[in-house]
Amino acid sequence: MSATSRPSALPCRALLLGALLLPLLVACKGDAEAEAPKAALAVAVAPVEMRELASGITVSGPASPVEAMQLGVEVSGLRVTALPVDVGQKVRRGDLLLQVDHRMLDADLAQASAALREAEAGAQLARANLTRGESLAGDRYISAMQLDELRAARTQGEARLGTARAARDTAALRRSFADLRAPADGIISHRFVQPGQVVAAGTELLRLIRDGRLEWRADLPASQLAQVSPGDPVRLRVDDGNSIDGRVRAVSPGVDAASRTGTIFVDLPPGLLEAGTVQADAFLEGRIDVGSARVLAVPAAAIVLRDGFPTVFSVDGDGVVRQHRIQAGARDDGFVAVEDGIDAGMQVVVEGAGFLAEGDRVQVVPRTDAAAPTVATEPAQ
User: How large is the greatest C-alpha to C-alpha distance in the chain, in angstroms?
Assistant: First the structure.
């Protein structure tokens, strides 16, 4: 073999040496990883304990008008000639809201007024004739029969006058039906007619929210309905994050046979509709305060959702996490009542619960104001 061919054997020897050392390096790495500390989630816990919480019922319902007045005319077949109001407009009692073509009604009223004047003249003449007849009868210038005839003519004249007056009043009343006026102060909420439209008697043309007042209504099952009494305070949440305070005015004395629910009626402060704070028939979430009770409670921060259900995580003495699906109740002052799922004395996670699962190992640390968990290490066993 020549001297120039010897160096080619060196790479082969290097590869052989690497193959022999590779298992040793892998084994050393595995030992190093085994000796490295394991990562554990640092969590803060709080005890499950009995607390005095305000009892409340949270439910959604519409902010409906206290009185929505459906307005229309009482004559048929007439055309709308004036409609000076629009939706959202505030009106006063007696303001003109709508007017229909009243020319025919004016003619009827004029005819009835003329007939009334004719009847008044006839009655006046009959009374005068009777007065003269009674004077003549005293001097025996007319017979008793003629006097009776004068008395009958006076009675007939009075009757015709009454009939004519009633006909005139009826015509005047029908003429007044041509002008639809506001029966009370309020806000126009709906308009179902346009100028030029021929209307029918009894058809709803406008809707008026009397005095602009709203009330909140909510349907409750029988079990919750029994807990609510007139005078209970209610707090409603509006879209801008503010709240409205109200008070229960009335509670339905029974429940609907189909839905098995009853209705509560809550008075709201005046001026909400006019100020635009709440819209009529808008759905609001409200909390009805029905008193207080001593119940099992956990901090609200301890509750997370798992598969759509409220869940808490407890930590046993070995630092192992256990998952508990609970039945949450009323919420008050940062605590939530727990009706089922955990026992008093358990330590539940209040910081870091959102990152846990059944069987995780954790390290308990003191509570802080920060909700974000930190990662700590524990030495290998």
Answer: 186
